[in-house]
Amino acid sequence: MENSEKLVGSSPPIVDEETAGTRAVVFPDDHGDIREERIQHGYPRPRGVEMKREMTKEDKELAAAGYEHLDEQKTKNKKGDNKLDNVDIQEHHLSYNELGSALDTSMDTKDPGNSYGLSADEAKARLARDGPNVLTPPKKKSPLRMYIDLLLTMFNILLIFAGILEYILLGIDFKDNFANTYLGGILIAVAFLNAFIEFFQLQKSEAILASFLAMIPPSCRVVRDGTITSVPAAELVKGDIVLLRTGDKTPADLIIFASTDLKVDNSNLTGESEAVERFGRPEGSKSRPVEAENLVFNSTLIVNGEGWGVVVRTGDHTLIGQIAALTGGESGNKSPLAVEIARFVMMVSAIAIIFAVVFFVVGITTVYKGKGAETVTFAVSILVAFVPEGLPSVVTLLLSIAAKRMAAQNVLVKDLQGVETLGRLGEYVLFVVCNALLTPFQLTLLATDKTGTLTRNQMTVTNLWNGEKMYTAFQSNNDSDSVEAFSISAPGMREMVDIAALNSRVKFDKMDVPFDQRTIFGDATETGLTRFAGRYIQDYDALHKQHPKVFEIPFNSSNKWALVILNKPHTAGDLTLYIKGAPERVLEKCSTYLKDGNIEPITDDFKDAYDDAYNYMASRGHRVIACAQKLLPSDPYDLSYPFSKNDGKYPGTEFCFCGLISLEDPPKHGVREAIGTLRLAGIKVMMVTGDHPKTAEAIARKINLILGDTKETLSAKTGRSMEEIYEDEVDAVVVHGDSIDGLQGWQWDQIFSKNEIVFARTSPQHKLEIVKRAQALGHIVGVTGDGVNDSPALKKADLGIAMNISGSDVSKEAANMILLDDNFASTVKGVAEGRQIFVNLKRSIHTPEVIPQLLYVVVPIPLPLSAILILVIDLGFELFVALSFAWDKPETKDGLMRMAPRKPVNDRSIMSLKRRALRRTKTLRRDTEMQEAIPPSKISAWASKAKAPFTRDFWEDNMERTDDESLVDGKLLSYSYMEAGVIEMLGALVAYFVVFYKNGFTPTDLRMAQSSKTTYFTKSSPDFTNSRGQIIGSSQQVEAFAKAQSIVYLSIFIIQCFNVFAVKARFSFPFGKAVVGNYYNFAGIFGGACLGIFIIYTPPLHVVFGGTYHLSPLYWLIPVAFGVLLLVWASIRVLILRKSVEQSRVKDIKGLMMFPTMRTMSMRSKH
User: Which residues are annotated as catalytic?
Assistant: First the structure.
């Protein structure tokens, strides 16, 4: 038996019929008491020892903090009402006969499966006449508008401003500031070039994303030439007969002419969150289109049941095509990385402006009095040195390259709203790519569905239990000796086979071929049951025609059973009821059971046998289905009885239990290793499934999801009662969905504190609530799933991952990443790729050029590096090298995948989050009557932000120690400025002073020349007499100055070449194949070298860049020596940080099974 946690005091006890031994953990009521009981079929067993937990008011407030927003009901405004009233759709008014004539199609309203539909030739002709069933994309921003938006970023604005400033100086004094002609022009040109590079790359990204979407074209099931076939939705034409099933996305506007409990989510049109029922109207509907019961619209989602419809509108003529404004809209969301980059840009820009202004003021008031133009030019160089101009382009390029690489590995980055529906393409692409590629790196918790995600979704009937004996339908060496081989003549077997065959909603692609040659359309459970039943039924089609359905309630995730009433005569009447579903739900409706063809009352002995059988099946990881029947008496249930689901006019109790059927869905190959790898990467993996707790736990133990003990297994091992076992003794928990609605804040905290978590018997609402609660604790949550019941959680998650092959349209719609091959192990590739991208981005951020520039004012000395050369550095070889990092492979085989997530969730982070939430909650103004929070006005919100830096809480929050790793953090700044930056600065300055010394200037001479009121180092400068008495003319001064600036430029380049490899040294020394194995690094270095030598040694360029071809290559040895020193320091740094790196690695997990899942069928759980 499994966890079936119930809330005491706030709701009545919920009876859960499960196997013997299931424990029900009863969480405390408002008084803080905890007790555990055992429940069996409505009869409470004796209570054990009561455990007391006293919680103070402060404890309760702190535990509840951060969850309040989840408890508030949010209302959605209806949208588009006026537009919905003005659409031109009239076909829903027509009767079936009028509809068939108007569309010239063949549909069978009594037996839709026998409809002939259109012929293939007629469909082709109509497609040529009416065009494809696609919406015309709404108007996007013009390329010019997009380019202007990219141009007006903070970095580019600073560059343009600096360029304009240089031209203002040129206008004031043209002769003395003539060189600014080139500087100002280049600064402005760089801003335009930077915007163009980003614009070009975003256009490429748009094409990439569009190609991704083309990889998963929407398809639908259509009847053509009397055969059900799957065709692309774009090829639908008016008159096509379409089959809609749960999880489908409606491909066009359809008139429904047959349905079974069909419910449609119209929220994207009307804003209503509740699904609405749709059914056929033989005489048509008189309502307006959006309220017509027989009309379903393009792009709406089928959330329950199935239906047959005929296409009446396609493409732009559909309702959503007529109100195309609904498909557009702006997205205000930004990925965490986009926010971090924007914050970094603003911070760097502010620092650059402050430094430029401060040093301008210092320079103009001290050593450079009266030299305003020179000081302004210096301030501009400070701005340029601080700003990493190529960063936006590097980020976009790196992410686009990674997106293409992941697509090649069957991991598709997508957003089903499409590029064409969003106005701010630049922000959209950055958001989609950042979110989908880098969220895997940040993941701290992955909630995964079981069926179809972790398992193969290929159900095979394995065992059947008829109330007395267990039978096996699958050859297995793991069955016990008491299990007998299946025989259709055994008691109860014929009834269960009939229930499996007749209480089914599967469809076949063809009806004119033998049963075993047909393709079955349906969910995996019903497909497995149908395959099994078809082996023991002589004529499957004849059986269905002989016993037609009179009434049906399909399975859904709420009731967890499917009921059908058939015209199948018996001695007491004409109608027979069959029900199948979750055993505990079916059994609670039964009062008798079938024994050797006789009806017997359910006794305690039967319940014990049922518990044993259920436990035997579920503990092997099998899905268990219960079957029951009721032979309806002719009074009152005759053929004319008006059965109805809505008002409960159908039998719901007093059924006769027939038996249990178990089906096995083995884990996918690679799942076990994938989960083990994710756990070793510090990501908590938990299962959230609608299956029975025993089944879920058994599968979890096979795939590395549960390794330790739950309270129940520890109790069984030690012989202690579960009341004697403390929470900190166990690291695993299996939570029953029935308890979720009543859990308090501290109980959620306790659940998420476990490393191994399984939620069983959950509904879609439960899955959504689990995701919200995990996010409230600071988790970056990923959700994997393939069914319609997973879609709410997929949409809410930070990263929704859907399956392509087995996934429903609804789940793909909700997700922002799709695994094209349905391989769960591809999730590991996503995490590894995301982590490597983040590391590569950090490697590309390096801005040490500013340090030598400050000596221009501090010492002072001639400007070591001109603003133009700084631009060449940032947009030249540094850009080449940064892009080459996109192809970097992990430093070690498992280095990054053994490190904790960049923002780990632990006790310290949770308590910090809760303290802030509690403080925020106490400061909210609330309505005096409803006690609802009143959001602050914009003015008060701005005022609060302005006052925040002057409060103690602000500084405590910002200075609080965390384990989070940001894109630009203390370690990166330390390395860039205090370690590699210092070595690079020293190398450049040593080369600078050596070159000047060889040309007659000692450091003292340089200081004297720069401090004097006379301007040196220009063509019109007077002669300079150095400390050795030598007279240096203006031409020699200019040549020396050009050589010095050239060697500084080349020194930065050469040392940066060494830094390309030094920056990779974290787990190992900066040598070896792993470090130098990326040939693109050498290509980037070669490109940078060609650019540098071309600029320095090409005479025509000297007038712009100030280089000289007289610079001897022997001077290159100085920065080479400092480059070697940088590698030595990187090696020493590895040794110094090795202990902290080892401590930050995720510890080994005892018991992980990292070998392939070679045999998963019929593996008996060890627990």
Answer: 449
